[in-house]
């Protein structure tokens, strides 16, 4: 209880700063994780109990990007089993959706500079050329429209892979 009061006192000190809302969000999410872990373990921190199923084993740091900014969270670790906060699960699907958008843009021939503009328009800080390349490296080779093997038109104006006419070169 005393720790919670100290956290609240620190938050009230930051009320004049621009960091007030991110600090409140961090504190609330941290409190949710602590409560969730206590329920999972069957005992609070430093509490001896017969219902205890495992013990805490420190924390791991995780950055959560939100509209308020980057929040620094400390996810509790357990000696036996694992714990991952349920509110971070949705982030996986949003990351997959973002990666899919970047890959589709890259397949469509959009330049990495335009991909960066697209990512910034979605509310993120941006993406570098190397990050785009790393994300698109996992694509199957047949989807990589940028590779030179089989995707460039030949001198006859036909694409070797599909036989379609790609340019304005007259056919002979």
Plain-language structure description:
There is one protein chain. With 172 residues, the chain is an alpha+beta fold. It folds into two domains: 2-84, no CATH class; 90-137, no CATH class. The chain is built from five helices and two strands; from the N terminus they run H-H-E-E-H-H-H. Strands 1-2 form a two-stranded antiparallel sheet. A hairpin with a 2-residue loop joins strand 1 (56-66) and strand 2 (69-78). The longest helix has 22 residues, at 20-41. The chain is flat.
> Which class of secondary structure composition applies to the elements?
alpha+beta
Mean pLDDT: 74
Radius of gyration, whole Å: 25 Å
Going across the major beta sheet, what is the strand order?
1-2
Q: In total, how many domains does the architecture comprise?
A: 2
Give me the secondary-structure topology.
Elements: H1 2-13, H2 20-41, E1 56-66, E2 69-78, H3 89-107, H4 112-121, H5 129-137
Antiparallel strand pairs: 1-2
What's the short version?
This protein has helices at 2-13, 20-41, 89-107, 112-121, 129-137, and strands spanning 56-66, 69-78. The chain has 172 residues and is of the alpha+beta class.
Descriptive keywords:
172 residues; disordered C terminus; 2 domains
